[in-house]
Amino acid sequence: MSLITAVPRLVVETTLKVVRLPLDTVLNLAGRDRSLTADAAEAAVKGAAAGVTGDDRLKAEATAQRVATDERRKAETLRSASTQATAKAEADLADKQTAVERERKAADKRAAERKRKAEDKRKKDKASAAKVERDRKASAAKAEAAEKERLADTERRERLAQLDREAEARQEKERALTAADEAQRLKDAAAAAKEKRKTD
């Protein structure tokens, strides 16, 4: 290695280190990797310096750094694409989960509404059946009361007719007794008159 190429290389490397130091410090404090743009610029500067000085070693470093930077850029692009795809997949999954949850809640609401309607119908049917049963019992009780009243009325009429017949029989008997008594009285009177004529 000749002094002619060693000195420019040292100047370039030192200058680049001085320029990169603040940027690398900030990136390290922020917890981030070296800047791709800075690495690409450094490789370009080294390549230009190698072209001017004819330093093959500096040229090789520039080429290696440029290739490494390109590889890092591709990896960063792939990582970014992967991150975006992951974020999209997560967002799609979240949307799907939200839609599923919304549908589940809607289904639960529909099921609750069907259950409420079924319960209302059951209560209405039960109330209707109870009313029908009450009406049936009321009608049966009314019919039974009417039948009892009819039977009682028939029994009263028959009893009154019986009493009338008994009264008529008593009256007939009393008339017969009165006629018999009158006949006996007349017979006794006739006998007494006859007896009186004999004594006269």
Summary keywords:
200 residues, mainly alpha
Give an account of the 3D structure:
Helix 1 packs antiparallel against helix 2. The longest helix has about 140 residues. This protein has a domain of about 90 residues. About 95% of the residues lie in helices and about 0% in strands. The protein is built from 3 helices and no strands. The chain is rod-shaped, with a radius of gyration of 68 Å. The relative contact order is 0.04. The termini are far apart. The protein is mainly alpha-helical.
How do the strands and helices of this protein lay out in sequence?
Blueprint: H1 3-29, H2 36-53, H3 56-199
Helix pairs in contact: 1-2, 2-3
What fraction of residues sit in β-strands? Answer: under 5%
Task: Count up the helices.
Answer: 3
Helix content: over 70%
Mean pLDDT rating: 80
Low-confidence stretches: 1-7
Task: Tell me the span between the first and last alpha carbons.
Answer: 216 Å
Q: Compute the gyration radius: what is it?
A: 68 Å
Q: Which class do the helix and strand fractions yield?
A: mainly alpha
Order of helices and strands: HHH
Largest sheet: none
Count of β-strands: 0
Tell the overall outline: rod-shaped
